[in-house]
């Protein structure tokens, strides 16, 4: 590995570490700044505004108060009804006419011989996975009444009526009748199709024009994310609110960074967890607006909570209908993309300054990963095959890097002579070095550019593996779950800049990186301390950063290092002929040296700098 190759890998490592540091720390900085701003704002708020905000963030309390405007159904007993298919199970209650619990049963991974291949969902401790459970989760229309504001989530609807749909799905209907007549009611209709996470949800109102506010009707939606994964820290980093506005613009915020948001007309709003989400999607007419409040509890097993008021458009007609869909399901790229509403954008496949790598994931990594997943269910083998595929793609760059390293190795004795000749005169050494490179036909950036061109692949993998739900709870060797770190020993305490456990794949990744650096030590400038020790410093720095990363990611980097070591040995031993390279360089020296415009400008700049230094010395 020549000097420029080392520079290339140093730049690559610096960019990668900077990206990881920015990705992990920017959320904490933003959260602290948000907390500071909120504290200032709260001090300046009127007392009634603080009470209003506290009320919005408070836990929902049960209400059985009499409601004079509605009939006996409003105070009836609670009954439950179930909608279920192979993927999801929804238990509805006539109190509020809403889902009481939502259990995710399985992920449809593929289809073979006309049958769905399902992967069962469980929490990290082996319990059934509930995406919605507990009294905090609820939704309902809000409208004024003589006794104050009513929320249909507090009222008892008539017991559900059920029916089968023509496509084999299930439909239930809840109706809340008004006292004054049978033709005045609010109705909720839910339809669950076979093999789908989507629930069609239609709100009908008949004869309620005197009760509902004209312009828009507030629809309250509260949802709570409970702990489901091994690493609570990663769950909270991925607990976000995403939305798509009427103009198709997508945006989001992380609950740890921000507490509230006001939005204009929007098509959908999603409460995203690390691997799952609950999303409300308007079908025919957009939501008029949304006001979001969120909360991250300081302790316990609650990851985050959101309390949102959506405005449903209403023109004051005697009857109106607002159809929407509710998605209760996994953050599975293929499933979300098939909905054709850009919901797949909630999956972080590339963000920040490296947002462009999402196209590498979408167009290359995900299709190849899915193809390999159809060949075998062993995800350790799939990652191995994916690593080999990626190495084949970047093989031309890798080969050119090794050829450049071989050329620099041949020129090393002459470079050492130039360095000894000019000693501390770096300007003179640089000019002579450029002349040597030009006469020998060597590109000084030959080792640097291939290294930088590999950066998009490295960052794409950094985004892809932790976000892939297919890897969730998939074991390989000692790793029980490839979507989180592979701990082989827990300390019981936290070591600063390292963590509270030992990740074996991270250790192997670091060892192979050091082996690769040691293998290349003879091709670096050993007289320069930076060039000599930098290849050993970066792997040690990455040790602490990657210790809490997904095992799939560190396993991939470990495999990539092993393949690099083997490739370098094979190419340099059996493919690259150093004698031929030396002969070719000597032949190039005999040719008339032609200067490119860039080389002429660089040489002219070096001459000016050298002249300036001589003038200063005089």
TrEMBL record:
- Which keywords, in A-to-Z order, does the entry hold? Cell membrane, Chaperone, Membrane, Protein transport, Transmembrane, Transmembrane helix, Transport
Pfam families on file: 60KD_IMP, YidC_periplas
Q: Which InterPro entries match?
A: Membr_insert_YidC, Membr_insert_YidC_N, YidC/ALB3/OXA1/COX18, YidC/Oxa/ALB_C, YidC_ALB_C, YidC_periplasmic_sf
MF (Gene Ontology): membrane insertase activity
Q: Which GO terms describe its biological process?
A: protein insertion into membrane; protein transport
Q: Which residue intervals define the domain Membrane insertase YidC/Oxa/ALB C-terminal in the entry? A: 379-572
* Cellular compartment(s): Cell inner membrane; Cell membrane
Return the similarity comment. Belongs to the OXA1/ALB3/YidC family. Type 1 subfamily.
Q: How does it assemble?
A: Interacts with the Sec translocase complex via SecD. Specifically interacts with transmembrane segments of nascent integral membrane proteins during membrane integration.
Q: What does this protein do?
A: Required for the insertion and/or proper folding and/or complex formation of integral membrane proteins into the membrane. Involved in integration of membrane proteins that insert both dependently and independently of the Sec translocase complex, as well as at least some lipoproteins. Aids folding of multispanning membrane proteins.
| The protein's name in its UniProt record | Membrane protein insertase YidC
Query: What species is given as this protein's source?
Result: Chitinophaga lutea
The gene it comes from is: yidC
């Amino acid at each position: 590995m020549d000097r420029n190759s080392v520079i290339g890998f140093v730049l690559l490592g610096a960019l990668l570490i900077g990206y990881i540091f920015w990705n992990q720390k920017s959320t904490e900085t933003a959260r602290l700044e948000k907390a500071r701003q909120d504290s200032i704002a709260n001090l300046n708020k009127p007392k009634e505004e603080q009470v209003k905000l506290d009320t919005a963030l408070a836990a929902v309390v049960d209400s059985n108060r009499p409601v004079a405007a509605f009939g006996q159904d409003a105070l009836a007993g609670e009954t439950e009804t179930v909608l279920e298919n192979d993927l999801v199970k929804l238990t509805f209650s006539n109190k509020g006419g809403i889902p009481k619990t939502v259990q995710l049963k399985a992920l449809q991974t593929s289809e073979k011989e006309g049958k769905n291949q399902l992967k069962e969902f469980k929490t990290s401790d082996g319990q059934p996975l509930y995406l919605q459970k507990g009294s905090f989760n609820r939704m309902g229309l809000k409208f004024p009444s003589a006794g104050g504001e009513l929320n249909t989530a507090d009222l008892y609807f008539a017991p559900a009526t059920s029916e089968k749909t023509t496509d084999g799905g299930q439909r239930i209907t809840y109706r809340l009748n008004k006292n004054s007549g049978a033709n005045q009611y609010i109705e909720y209709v839910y339809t669950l199709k076979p093999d789908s996470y989507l629930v069609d949800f239609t709100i009908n109102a008949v004869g309620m024009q005197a009760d509902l506010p004209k312009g828009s009707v507030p629809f309250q939606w509260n949802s709570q994310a409970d702990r489901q994964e091994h690493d609570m820290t990663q769950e909270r980093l991925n607990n976000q609110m995403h939305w798509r506005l009427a103009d198709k613009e997508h945006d989001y915020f992380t609950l740890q960074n921000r507490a509230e948001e006001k939005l204009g007309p929007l098509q959908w709003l999603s409460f995203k967890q690390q691997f799952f989400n609950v999303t409300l999607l308007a079908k025919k007419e957009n939501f008029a607006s949304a006001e979001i409040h969120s909360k991250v509890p300081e302790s316990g097993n609650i990851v985050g909570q959101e309390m949102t008021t959506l405005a449903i458009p209403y023109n004051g007609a005697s009857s109106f209908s607002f159809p929407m869909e509710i998605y209760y399901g996994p953050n599975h790229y293929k499933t979300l993309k098939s909905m054709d509403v850009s919901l797949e954008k909630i999956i972080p496949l590339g963000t920040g300054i490296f947002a462009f790598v999402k196209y590498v994931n979408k167009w290359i990594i995900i299709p190849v990963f899915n193809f390999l997943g159809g060949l075998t269910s062993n995800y350790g083998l799939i990652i191995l095959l994916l690593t080999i595929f990626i190495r084949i793609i970047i093989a031309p760059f890798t080969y050119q890097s090794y050829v450049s390293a071989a050329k620099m190795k041949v020129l090393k004795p002459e470079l050492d002579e130039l360095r000894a000749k000019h000693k501390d005169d770096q300007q003179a050494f640089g000019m002579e070095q450029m002349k040597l490179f030009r006469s020998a036909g060597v590109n000084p950036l030959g080792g640097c550019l291939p290294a930088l061109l590999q950066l998009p692949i490295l960052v794409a993998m950094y985004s892809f593996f932790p976000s892939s739900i297919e890897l969730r709870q998939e074991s390989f060797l000692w790793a029980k779950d490839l979507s989180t770190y592979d701990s082989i020993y827990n300390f019981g305490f936290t070591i600063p800049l390292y963590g509270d456990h030992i990740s074996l794949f991270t250790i192997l990744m670091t060892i192979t990186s050091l082996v690769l650096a040691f293998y290349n030590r003879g091709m670096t400038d050993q007289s320069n301390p930076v060039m000599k020790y930098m290849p050993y410093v970066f792997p040690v720095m990455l040790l602490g950063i990657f210790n809490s990363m997904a095992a799939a990611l560190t396993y991939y980097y470990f495999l990539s290092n092993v393949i690099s070591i083997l490739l370098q040995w094979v190419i340099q031993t059996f493919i690259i002929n150093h004698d031929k390279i030396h002969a070719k360089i000597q032949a190039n020296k005999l040719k008339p040296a032609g200067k490119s415009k860039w080389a002429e400008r660089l040489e002219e700049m070096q001459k000016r700098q050298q002249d300036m230094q001589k003038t200063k010395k005089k």
